[in-house]
Every structure is written in C-alpha cells, then in structure tokens.
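STRUCTURE REQUEST FORM
Protein name: Thioredoxin domain-containing protein
Source organism: candidate division MSBL1 archaeon SCGC-AAA259J03
Requested output: structure tokens
Priority: standard
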Amino acid sequence: MEKSEDDELERLKREKMKEIMGKKQGSEFPESPLRITDSNFQNIVDEYPIIVVDFWAEWCSACKPMSPLIERMAEKYSGKIVFGKLNIDKNPKITNRFQITSIPTLLFLKNGSAIDKVIGTISPKQLEQKLKKYLD
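Status: completed
Returned output:
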C-alpha cells in the first residue's frame, strides 16, 4: 500500500472506532496529552471512552522519565486512547478521589470508570501490553 492509502486507512479506523464507541463523529482525539485539572476532569472523561491519566508533580524525579513516554503513546494511540497529565499539587480533588498516594501513577479509565492503575515507572513495552488489552 502507498503512504496515502495507509493514511486513509488509519483515518477510517479512527472514525469507525469513534462510531463504535458512541462518540460524536466530529470529536477529535488529541495527539498529545491533555492537561487535566479538577475542573475539567469530568468533561474529559465524558468525552472519550478510554483515558490514561498520568498523576505527577514537578518535584517528582521518578515522574520525569514518564513524560516522554506519555507523549509518544498519546501520538501513537491517537484516535483510540486519550492521555492526560494531572499535577497532584494543583488538583487535590481528583487526586484524593482516586486515592493517589504515590507518584508517578497511571490511572486507566474506560467509559468513566477506573479499570486499572500502575504505580511507579513502567517500560514502553509494559505500557503497550496494557493498552492493547483495553482496545480488544
């Protein structure tokens, strides 16, 4: 297949995924992590079927290597999974709601419900294995 055919196939897959998941056809999946806050959390959860939230803080040295991984995965899984970053120091309501006591923590939500959590750093391979499990 040529490059343009591959691009068209990917676009059609994304549209079909949105349709299957019952989301608005015009709703775009971001290619980079969303900035999630206490005030926009519910709107984001309501808009996208599968979300991975990275709970982090500026002072957290273990959180730093997770940031580029989350960026790469957001781009790679655009149209299928939305990634977000939530600073725990600035957003205590959501942090407390999900009982986040250690960072980094990745929280996986599907249709608004927490379905999995990873505490600590994770390799790209481990993260991809988890993501693929939720796409089936």
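Reviewer notes: The two ends are 25 Å apart (CA to CA). The helical segments are 3-20, 41-47, 66-76, 92-97, 124-135.
Form closed.
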